[in-house]
Write a structure and sequence with these properties.
47% helix, single chain, binds pyridoxal-5'-phosphate, 24 strands, Pyridoxal_P_attach_site, pyridoxal phosphate, Glyco_trans_35, alpha/beta, 33 helices, Rossmann fold, glycosyltransferase, 6-stranded parallel β-sheet
């Protein structure tokens, strides 16, 4: 048996002598104060007189990191000794947020760190603010990957994340003149204490070139030649589990030039040109594409996908071959999950590695591949389904295009065998779409190359079977399954809501963090007046904390006793922030006309980013801000209604917003939101939901009960029927006086007097262009349900009772449950016993 001093799994080189584990320095022997002071001096080179707040952050992070590393090293050893089956989670996005508080919480050292900082005259709350979010994702899909990492580590599942170390993550949003401005997110500017560069783990990734066929005695060999090379270098980020020794690894790839300089250019005396070429290859990992729920089709995006997939597949095969000689073992030791189609090219890359590089027979290799891969679908929306032109694909990755053609040929032969003569079926399921100018359909590649395909909520998975993948469901009965998404209760309850955590702990003891089903013991306390009062006090304090931050950010002063009505998520037409705005304007009109005597005071908070190229989404942001400016300044309105756009919605903002919410807006058109996870975070933090029967809202309703959620609007079948019957938004416009008034105000420039036509296009999408997301059809139902919400909020006791029941019934939505289902039904992996 060998041990390693550093948390890598590189086979030992003879030059590095083994050291017994017992001789390692133990980080947690030193008290926090001493450790903080040591790091301030020896890691930052500062004294307490010269130290800045950032230096104290570094000292704190380094102190916590020592504890993480100790367990990380042991986890690597345990995995090596036990040789368990491993899961590789391939994702182009990991929306992690800040790491320090989460690491301290998961390791159980938060109290002593807090204590140590206090003794040194600092506060944990202050230094935490110095950490930039790791915003390596757009929204729900990327955050899901981060929650999964937390759950895998917590459950001792040997799981590794693979992704890209973007130099610039999700853009930082500012609001100027009511409009979104995108600023670069230079998150690595001051370094990143949570990453470890691994120059010993680098792989060549090839692009372009051409394929040479060589006919040999044993068959045809293909050689991919004249390629351009980029080097992928690993950066490891430790992922500590909660209440366990396990620390897993997130391995992010950074693009480096294959050679420092092109000597040809250098010898010509063209030094600048040589350096430029180097920058070209490093562009690959420069920046995250800021699109949510839409495919970009750009060459650099395909390069990013292949870059990280190739490095990851090479890396996991190297690890497999270190310990095994028999390829038959591959499916017993390796499970790969594709987070959406972004890494789907891994199916072709694995074939390339097995057949061209390791010289396995095609059919044998394909048998292994299909046992290794599984694919998660995240959307039914056509604009989000990735396709690549055959021309671009073949230029960038000529060998992989050939591999995909062969996979497709064999697949179509199989389909034709089972459904003879159905040429329409063949053209519908083909990996190559011949009807839209020859494109590679990545979703079809992912389905064909995987043993299991899952949707992310019950409704979504049913829709997959009956619509998008109906043909595949006939071809491969049983391949399509459901795994409802979840969220980690560590970050989304314990870390973000210490008040509620303490209240729950005092009632139930600890343990719910690792076993969320324990929350069900809160149910009887919903009937306990003292508990309800305490619960309400926690919510009020969280709202106060949020109001303070909002005043600092926007200058708008809020009354924390108002109903905090919150919609935070990416700005997209299908999520219908605009429907929320229609309701806000309706309330405004009712207040101004003196119609309502004692309306419930409301604060309507929006937050979210629009893709920079998504003009309509940016118009919606601007409209929210224009409405807010008018409403918030109207003395006739006062505290009855306030409207806030919270700038730069990101994970650390979410941690403040969810605990401070009373009402959770989950109002997407039924059938469009695959799952949603913001809905789960809200309910877990004691907000009541107003929502459509969409995504996981359906299952939230099942769990909390019909009386404890506000459901409105058309169901998925009703949406389809309404469209089929020839939906005419004008009927709703003419049929509802309040709606007509609201739309007229937007269209006539009531909120944009300096530019009356500003929102003409918004009105046109609703009235002239068919209102694709059926806002007008759902308006009356939404407003009536909001009236019921307002009325219930006046009964604080009953509201709180229902909020407590929501928290008590959230067990299902722990990502621990989600990961347990993936582990047993899809990956067939077990926790490692230590
Ligand atoms: C949870 C989360 C999301 C996903 O929210 P939805 O309401 O499910 O779209 C997006 N961004 C951040 C920062 C989150 O924490």
């Amino acid at each position: 048996m060998t041990t390693s001093k550093t948390p890598t799994d590189q086979p030992r080189t003879p030059t590095r002598p083994a050291k017994p584990a017992a001789r390692r320095i133990s980080a947690h022997k030193a008290p926090a104060v001493q450790s903080l002071q040591n790091h301030l001096t020896f890691s930052s080179g500062k004294t307490s007189t010269s130290a800045t707040e950032r230096d104290w952050y570094a000292a704190t992070a380094n102190t916590i990191r020592d504890h993480v590393i100790e367990r990380w090293v042991k986890t690597v050893d345990a995995y090596r000794e036990q040789d368990p089956k491993r899961v590789y989670y391939l994702s182009l996005e990991f929306l992690i947020g800040r790491m320090m508080s989460n690491a301290a919480l998961n390791l159980g050292i938060a109290p002593e760190i807090r204590d140590g900082l206090t003794k040194l005259g600092h506060s944990l709350e202050e230094v935490v603010e110095k950490e930039n979010d790791a915003a390596l994702g757009n929204g729900g899909l990327g955050r899901l990957a981060a929650c999964f990492l937390d759950s895998m580590a917590t459950m001792d599942i040997p799981g590794t994340g693979y992704g890209i170390r973007y130099e610039y993550g999700m853009f930082r949003q500012t609001i100027e003149g009511g409009q979104q401005i995108e600023n670069p997110d230079n998150w690595l500017r001051y370094g990143n204490i949570w990453e470890f560069q691994r120059p010993e783990h680098t792989y060549d990734v090839k692009f372009f070139g051409r394929v040479v066929e060589c006919v040999e005695s044993h068959g045809t060999e293909y050689h991919w030649v004249d390629t351009e090379h980029v080097v992928a270098m690993a950066y490891d980020v430790p992922i500590p589990g909660y209440g366990t020794e396990t620390v897993n690894n997130l391995r992010l790839w950074s693009a480096k030039a294959a050679r420092e300089f092109d000597l040809g250019h250098f010898n010509d005396g063209n030094y600048e040109k040589a350096v430029e070429l180097r920058n070209d290859s490093e562009t690959i990992s420069r920046v995250l594409y800021p699109n949510d729920a839409s495919a970009s089709g750009r060459e650099l995006r395909l390069k990013q996908q292949y870059f990280f997939v190739s490095a990851s597949v090479q890396d996991l095969l190297r690890r497999f071959l270190c310990e095994h000689k028999d390829w038959n073992l591959l499916p017993e030791k390796v499970a790969i999950q594709l987070n959406d189609t972004h890494p789907a090219i891994a199916v072709a890359e694995m074939m390339y590695q097995l057949v061209d590089v390791h010289k396995l027979k095609w059919d044998y290799a394909w048998g292994l591949v299909v046992k290794v891969f599984a694919y998660t679908n995240h959307t039914l929306m056509p604009e989000a389904l990735e396709t690549w032109s055959v021309e671009l694909f073949g230029r960038l990755l000529p060998r992989h295009l050939g591999i995909i053609f062969r996979i497709n040929h064999q697949f179509l032969q199989m389909v034709n065998h089972h459904f003879p003569g159905d040429t329409d079926l063949l053209s519908r399921v083909s990996i190559i779409d011949e009807t839209h100018g020859r494109r590679v359909r990545m979703a079809h590649l992912a389905v064909v190359g995987s043993h299991t395909v899952n949707g992310v909520a019950a409704l979504h998975s049913e829709l997959l079977k009956t619509t998008l993948f109906a043909d595949f469901n006939r071809i491969y009965p049983g391949k399509l399954v459901n795994v409802t998404n979840g969220i980690t209760p560590r970050r989304w309850l314990n870390q973000c809501n210490p008040g509620l955590t303490q209240l729950i702990s005092s009632a139930l003891g600890d343990g719910f963090q690792k076993d969320l089903s324990k929350l069900s013991s809160l149910e009887p306390l919903a009937e306990d007046a003292d508990f309800r009062n305490a619960f309400r006090a926690v919510k009020l304090a969280n709202k106060q904390r949020l109001a303070t931050r909002i005043e600092k950010l926007t200058g708008v002063k809020l009354n924390p006793n108002s109903l905090f009505d919150v919609q935070i998520k990416r700005i997209h037409e299908y999520k219908r922030q605009l429907l929320n705005v229609l309701h806000v304007i309706t309330l405004y009109n009712r207040i101004r006309s003196g119609q309502v005597k004692d309306s419930t005071p409301r604060v309507v908070i929006f937050g979210g980013k629009a893709a920079p190229g998504y003009w309509m989404a940016k118009q919606i942001i601007r409209l929210i801000n224009d409405v807010a400016a008018l409403v918030n300044d109207d003395p006739a309105v006062g505290d009855k209604l306030k409207v806030v756009f919270y700038p730069n919605y990101e994970v650390s903002a979410a941690e403040l917003l969810f605990p401070g919410s009373d009402l959770s807006e989950q109002i997407s058109t039924a059938g469009t939101e695959a799952s949603g996870t913001g809905n789960m975070k809200m309910a877990l933090n004691g907000a009541l939901t107003i929502g459509t029967l969409d995504g996981a809202n359906v299952e939230i309703k099942e769990e909390v009960g019909d009386d404890n959620i506000f459901i409105f609007g058309l169901t998925t079948p009703e949406v389809a029927a309404t469209k089929a019957a020839g939906y005419n938004p004008w009927d709703y416009y003419h049929g509802n006086a309040e709606l007509k008034q609201v739309l007229d105000m937007i269209g006539n420039g009531f909120f944009s007097v300096d530019e009356p036509d500003r929102y003409r296009a918004i009105l046109d999408t609703l009235l002239q262009k068919g209102d694709h997301y059926l806002l007008l059809a759902d308006y009356a139902s939404y407003v009536a349900t909001q009236d019921a919400v307002g009325a219930l909020y006046k009964d604080q006791d009953e509201w709180t009772r229902r909020a407590v029941l929501n928290v008590a019934r959230m067990a299902k939505f722990s990502s621990d449950r989600t990961i347990a289902e993936y582990a047993s039904n899809i990956w067939k992996v077990k926790p490692v016993q230590r």
